[in-house]
């Protein structure tokens, strides 16, 4: 499924009056490469954990990746400020490739997590770049189309990536998946970088430096929280509480006040995005685990869940773009509500299949419904949030929208991983995971009622 990484804060004015087609092509190619990694590695991750005996660390493979993307976007933003967008992209591509190499050579689950950590730094920067440039270089009437185009870049990788990953694993090894992605990256890197060379540095007024330390604090606090939840001894509770307090303190400089209380206006919009991501995207990696370990299905079928998610999300994104063009901004609240209905209903069906209460095909049906709902509600909410802030704050908003998503997805995956570690059998642990995410999917319903205020 499409995942947005934290963005740097671009200037409010347009960098270029008429963005050339090559610029859009370069931005979309960046997303295409990241999408292939997401679908392929996501398909084989249950196999990796099983082969290396690391099921108890399964959640960290996702959480480390997501958290590292926060740092990656920050570092790439600093480099982009000083040297230009192409330099930031080159830095991110290099780390992305290094992380894939480490993953392919991993002999233990901790090394897998290290590889995912390095990958995350690279992907954080790569996913940031398109949204930075869209916000800065494209006019309002083109933003909805570009957002839909970005989402559509997940379509082909979502359909083909899982199948290719399962074939490579069956014929060779799961290690062939990250190694083949390195080859794709080498071929794609020049095409990604060339159109970005024409863009000047994006001055952010030092905003990246101001939030670098809070971001590092957030990562440390998050690690303490999840490790505390995973620990069965007496230290677990105090470590988790310390991490929770640190998480709250570190997040304050990154988001507007009133986020957690769903204050009307922008805080409610950010909360809607965050909890929707927590519920659907956080549960996504455990859908593949359920298909592999509970239903004992081959990787080709496991990967189908990723394909369904990517396809349905893209359909939802294009649907909202069509409705935006036809009915205008006035239809956004209704699109958001119907999208949230699809998310909650789809999660319920998916959860019943994950736990074994219903046959596994309902997982795919639930994923289809939830993905369409997410694609519709997510981009509609993003457009609504953009309408709430003046142009001078567009870059800051891009960062906040992306950061809340990354934080909440990592939090969901981390807590779910702790539940899998502490609760046995796996079916029972997944039951708690499903309940947690269903409850989280209801919070955006409350936030949606508070979006209309500035």
UniProtKB/TrEMBL annotation:
Domain Major facilitator superfamily (MFS) profile: 23-452
Pfam families assigned: MFS_1
Membrane-spanning segments: 22-45, 57-78, 85-107, 113-134, 146-170, 176-199, 211-229, 235-255, 267-291, 297-318, 338-356, 362-380, 401-423, 429-448
GO CC term (a single one): plasma membrane
Keyword field contains Transmembrane: yes
Presence of keyword Lipoprotein: no
Membrane topology: Multi-pass membrane protein
GO molecular function terms listed in the Swiss-Prot or TrEMBL record: transmembrane transporter activity
Keywords from the named record: Membrane, Transmembrane, Transmembrane helix
Domain of life: Bacteria
InterPro entries listed in its UniProt record: MFS (IPR011701), MFS_dom (IPR020846), MFS_trans_sf (IPR036259)
Annotated localization: Membrane
Principal location: membrane
UniProt cross-references to Gene3D superfamilies, sorted A to Z: MFS general substrate transporter like domains
Name of this protein: MFS transporter
């Amino acid at each position: 499924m499409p995942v947005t990484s934290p963005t740097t804060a671009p200037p409010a004015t347009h960098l270029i009056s008429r963005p050339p087609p090559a610029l859009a092509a370069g931005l979309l190619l960046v997303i295409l490469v990241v999408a292939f990694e997401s679908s392929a590695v996501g398909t084989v991750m249950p196999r990796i954990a099983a082969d290396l005996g690391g099921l108890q660390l399964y959640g960290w493979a996702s959480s480390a990746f997501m958290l590292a993307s926060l740092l990656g976007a920050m570092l790439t933003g600093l480099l982009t400020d000083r040297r230009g967008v192409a330099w930031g992209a080159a830095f991110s591509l290099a780390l992305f490739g290094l992380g894939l190499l480490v993953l392919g050579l991993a002999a233990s689950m901790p090394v897998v997590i290290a590889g995912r950590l390095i990958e995350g730094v690279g992907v954080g920067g790569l996913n940031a770049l398109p949204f930075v440039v869209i916000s800065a270089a494209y006019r309002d009437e083109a933003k909805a189309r570009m957002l839909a185009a970005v989402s559509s870049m997940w379509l082909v990788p979502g359909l083909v990536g899982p199948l290719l990953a399962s074939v490579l694993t069956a014929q060779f090894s799961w290690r062939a998946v990250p190694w083949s992605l390195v080859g794709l990256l080498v071929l794609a890197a020049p095409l990604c970088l060339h159109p970005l060379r024409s863009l000047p540095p994006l001055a952010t007024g030092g905003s990246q430096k101001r939030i670098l330390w809070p971001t590092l604090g957030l990562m440390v606090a998050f690690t303490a929280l999840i490790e505390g939840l995973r620990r069965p001894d007496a230290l677990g509770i105090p470590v988790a509480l310390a991490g929770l307090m640190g998480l709250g303190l570190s997040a304050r400089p990154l988001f507007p006040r009133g986020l957690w209380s769903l204050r009307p206006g922008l805080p409610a919009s950010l909360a809607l995005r965050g909890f929707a991501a927590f519920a659907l995207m956080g549960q996504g990696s455990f859908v593949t685990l359920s298909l592999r370990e509970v239903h004992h299905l081959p990787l080709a079928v496991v990967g189908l869940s990723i394909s369904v998610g990517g396809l349905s999300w893209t359909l939802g994104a294009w649907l909202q773009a069509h409705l935006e063009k036809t009915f205008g901004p006035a239809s956004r609240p209704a699109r958001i509500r119907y999208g949230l209905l699809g998310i909650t209903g789809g999660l319920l069906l998916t959860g019943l299949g994950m736990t074994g209460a219903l046959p596994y095909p309902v997982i795919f049906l639930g994923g289809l419904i939830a993905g369409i709902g997410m694609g519709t509600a997510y981009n509609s909410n993003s457009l609504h949030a953009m309408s709430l802030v003046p142009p001078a704050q567009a870059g800051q908003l891009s960062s906040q929208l992306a950061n809340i998503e990354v934080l909440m997805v990592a939090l969901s995956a981390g807590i779910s991983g702790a539940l899998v570690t502490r609760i046995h059998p796996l079916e029972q642990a997944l039951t708690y995971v499903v309940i947690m995410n269903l409850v989280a999917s209801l919070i955006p319903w409350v936030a949606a009622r508070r979006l209309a205020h500035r």
